[in-house]
Amino acid sequence: MGGLIGLLTTRTVLGTMLGALIGILIEQSGVFGAAAGAAHAPRSISISEEFFRMTFELMGHVAKSDGRVTESEIDAARQLMRELKLGPREISMAIDCFRTGKSTAYDAELGIERLREACGQRYDLLRAFMELQLRAALAGNGISPPARAILMRVAERLGMSGREFAYMEASLRARQRTRGGGASAAAAAGAEALAECYTELEIDAGITDQEVTKAYRRQMSRHHPDKLMANGLPESMAQMAKEKTQRIQEAYEGIRAARGMR
């Protein structure tokens, strides 16, 4: 088309060649295609929207994995909504997502792929997502075998190792046991409480003091609320991130006190 326009306007071979060259450059730049696509493309979904939607969709899918959704699993989802202090509109959205996830036609693999692509290399955000899923599953029915299979597959797809998954689950189970006691991990006495501190930092008790400090800093970096929010964590979930960093701080202080670290 560029060559034809050049020929009609200049009636010379050179004009035809220049017109063709301009046409090729325009085609390679994708200007027309991009403009046309922008006119008809749907509104892109933000990371925080994808994170929110997938949180409750997968929660519903995991709850339904053993054949039926129990009252305890529904209560676990409701409890999460209360902790996130969702408004009426957000609660309605979360319920719709939960129902979508428990549908027999729901494609969890596709949903996880969407989340992974939206988050990109934001690995800390994906870890936060997995912790929410494990937490809800534990609060529901204590993670049934079908639910565990799904969660482990999702964790692997999001780049989490089996070791990391085990540490995260152990930390959440330890938190369930101590919930309601009123004492922080740092002040708690006994071998079990100290073991829970190590679990919170995802480390073994036999490592050096220097390695403990490195693990603490790594966990604080992974779960810092400001960092997660900047990466796309929904604002409604910021408080949970703050509570996580507080538990990490308490666990580190508990280990320091037990070891006599400065």
Could you please describe the fold and organization of this structure?
With 262 residues, the chain is mostly helical. 75% of the residues lie in helices and 0% in strands. It is built from 14 helices and no strands. The model is unreliable at 28-43 and 180-189 (pLDDT under 50).
Give the topology.
Blueprint (H helix, E strand, L loop, with lengths): L1 H9 L2 H17 L1 H10 L6 H18 L6 H13 L4 H14 L6 H12 L3 H19 L3 H13 L4 H17 L12 H10 L8 H15 L1 H7 L6 H22 L3
Count of DSSP H/I helices: 14
What's the SSE pattern? HHHHHHHHHHHHHH
> Major beta sheet, specifics?
none
Shape: globular
Radius of gyration: 26 Å
Q: Which parts are unreliable, with pLDDT below 50 for 5 consecutive residues or more?
A: 28-43, 180-189
Termini separation:
76 Å
Estimate what percentage of residues fall within beta strands: under 5%
Output mean pLDDT.
79
Helix residue percentage: over 70%
Helix/strand class: mainly alpha
What is the number of E strands?
0
Concise description?
The chain is an all-alpha fold and 262 residues long. 75% of the residues lie in helices and 0% in strands.
Keywords:
single chain; 262 residues; mainly alpha; globular
